[in-house]
Amino acid sequence: xxxxxxELFNPKHLPYAYTSVLFRAxxxxxxxxxxxxxxxxxxxxxxxxxxxxxxPEFDNAPLNELMKDKANVPTMGGVLIIGTIxxxxxxxxxxxxxxxxxxxxxxxxxxxxxxx
Length: 116
Fold this sequence. Notes:
Blueprint: H1 2-8, H2 21-49, E1 53-54, H3 61-66, E2 73-74, H4 77-92, H5 98-115
Antiparallel strand pairs: 1-2
Helix pairs in contact: 2-4, 4-5
């Protein structure tokens, strides 16, 4: 989205840094890191409030005793990772590229399949 927005303000198509794939990939890595760091605590609190935690129970009593501290630990960190990938891709990728659109469809589709 930002790529296309910046392209509108560059009518002569001068070479700028945002046209470089390496620059956009570096921005995506840094942006994804900060999104995860900032949204991580909020996501964990939300998952704890909704009680979406793991209850490890095994047929072995000593193993259950060892794992009792792990009860109600949120196990949906993939939601944060997938959400961050989608946001960063929508912000920094060239959305007119077929492979970007296909990868976004696959990410959403496979994430939805994993939740069913």
